[in-house]
Structures are given as C-alpha cells and as structure tokens.
Amino acid sequence: MADVIADFWTGIDSHNWDLVASTLADDFIRIGMRDDEADTSRGKDTYMSFVSQVVGKMDHHDLRTDRIIYSADGRTAYIETVETIRPPGEDTVVMRFLNLMELNEQGLITKLDIFWKTPPKMPPEWIAVETVLEGD
After folding, report:
1. Given this model, what pLDDT does residue 2 score?
2. Nearest to 95 by CA among 69, 124, 121
3. What is the three-class DSSP state of 28?
4. Residues near 89 by Cβ (< 8 Å), separated by ≥ 6?
5. How much is the pTM?
6. In angstroms, rounded to a whole number, what is the distance separating the alpha carbons of residues 90 and 110?
7. What's the rounded Cα separation, in Å, for the pair 40 and 29?
8. Which of 3, 7, 28, 40 is the most buried (most CB within 10 A)?
9. Nearest CA-CA partner of 50 in 38, 68, 36, 66
10. How many CB atoms lie within 10 A of CB 136?
11. How confident is the model at residue 131 (pLDDT cuts 50, 70, 90)?
C-alpha cells in the first residue's frame, strides 16, 4: 500500500509536483503558518500553483521529514519537518514545523495544517498564498 503522506513530503522535497498532486484530494485545504485566510489555500489546483511558485522563487530549498506518526485509524498524521530556504538575495532560513494532515476515505490528503517554531530569522513576508498567487 502506498504511503501518500510520505509521498507528499518526498514530492515537496524533490520538487516532484506530479507526485505531490497525486496525493491530494480536489478539496484539499492548506492552513499556513500565519494561520489566517491570506495564508490559506483552498483546492488542490490553488495549492499546487502556490507551492510550485513559492519553491521556484527560492535560491535554495530543501525539506527534511524527521518523523511521521499516524493515528490508530490511519486517517490522521503528525509530521515533524525541517525546511531550509534561501530566498533570492537573502540569508538562509531554517524552520521547524509540526504538520497535521488528514486523509479522506479514498486515502487522499484533504488537509494540511502547519504549526511552526518561530525561527531567529523570519521568512520573507511574500511567502503567503494570497501574495504569491496575486501575481498570476
């Protein structure tokens, strides 16, 4: 059986957008680290546009998945990740996250809710769904 949660994170780290898309339900929702509507994306297509654009703007991007913990029924997972980015012309930022993900009955991801530790250096303000997609 495929592990769509692991595939999602592998796809993000390797920038394999087809792999990421294959793990998501059409009604996927991502609640970002800013925890507001401006940093929430609704729908698989919106999320795919956002994530591919924001990662594509980076001079460097990698994502390490440290641990995935599943609920007893396998429909919820908690994922520890460390993301390293270098926005254009800026210093490297390392961010530690705990991510909550939910799966539907078909085994596709319906929700990603991001919780993070505040790093010593904050990422650029433009890394928000609304800001990135306004340029489309």
Report:
1. 64
2. 121
3. strand
4. 59
5. 0.83
6. 33
7. 7
8. 28
9. 38
10. 8
11. confident
